[in-house]
Design a protein that fits this description.
- The chain is mainly alpha-helical and about 150 residues long.
- About 60% of the residues lie in helices and about 10% in strands.
- The protein has a three-stranded antiparallel sheet with strand order 1-2-3.
- It is rod-shaped, with a radius of gyration of 43 Å.
- It starts with a helix and ends with a helix.
């Protein structure tokens, strides 16, 4: 047995993870230093009610174990958040790719429409110029033929 489990056996513990702020009974937590030989000066947290009533099942937790629990919980949460961010990035990239395709199609259609309008305009302009040239050739032909 470790010194932690040996000395913790004197004080029954409630399963609390991380840094406790209150005991299960609702009472606040006080920090103490151990005076026991195996854990001399080791700091622990204890329910304020239970400091005088060591036989009751109130909160008792070694501070070093509390911090290790807290670090593990933060690590697990960090991993979950990292995974959520990765999934979010993937969803955003899918939406961005979809939007890029949509915008490209929209721009292509608008470009085709503008090109078609310009072709129509140029064709009408060329038709008018062709009519002018035709009239000019008829006039020149009539003048030369006279």
């Amino acid at each position: 047995m470790t010194s932690s489990s040996i000395s913790s056996a004197h004080f029954p513990r409630i399963s609390n993870h991380g840094v406790p702020t209150r005991c299960w009974c609702g009472e606040g937590i006080t920090t103490f230093g151990s005076s026991m030989v195996k854990n001399r000066y080791r700091r622990f947290q204890r329910c304020q009610i239970a400091r005088d009533r060591k036989t009751e099942n109130h909160l008792f937790k070694w501070i070093d174990e509390t911090l290790i629990d807290e670090i593990r919980m933060v690590d697990a949460k960090h991993e979950r958040v990292t995974q959520e961010i990765t999934k979010f990035e993937e969803r955003v990239m899918e939406k961005v790719k979809f939007e890029i395709v949509r915008v490209e199609v929209e721009m292509s259609e608008k470009l085709k429409e503008k090109v078609n309008l310009e072709i129509t305009r140029v064709a009408q302009e060329m038709k008018q110029k062709l009519q002018i040239v035709t009239v000019a050739m008829v006039v020149v032909g009539a003048i030369v033929g006279i």
